[in-house]
Amino acid sequence: MDENIQCFLKSEAFSSSVAAAFRHTKIYRGNVSDTIKAEFHDELRKILDEISSQYANTRISDELHITNIEYLQRTIIDKNTHILVDSGFTIGIAQKILNLYLKYLWCYGLIQEPPQCPFDQIILEIIKWKGAPWTKINTLEEYKRLKEQAKEKAKEKALSDHLAVWELKLWNERNIKNI
Fold it and tell me: Could you read off the pLDDT of 138-156 as tens digits, one per residue?
């Protein structure tokens, strides 16, 4: 694929992923300038590109993927506590950004199928999740329970053994109805 096309697609994937993840929660402290936010986004994009490169030529295990979510969250918090609201960049926010970014790259043909899917309110409703809202999930244990419940629901509906494929089918079914 042409490098310019790839760059454009990654940029669009990043922008869409951040917008979707940050839309439902407060991330920044009160008076963070647009310049600081832009620097933060540049750093976040570099980390996502670093992580996503692991998915280019091989299927990543659930365990490594969860490690990547934790790495993303920890790295962002460690470097940006001065601009982030306390507990603003949760495991739930980290998984949404990473999982959605990977979904875009996968659909664009830039990486292999990711092991998981973006968990948001729609998926939580479908699986009848009783835990915290996705934006408030802040432990790996709770995230793993969410993932396992989604896998059970996917198997129950005989849609797929793969969460990424299952969620993509659900997303398409939902959005085709709304066209």
Answer: 999 999 999 999 999 888 8
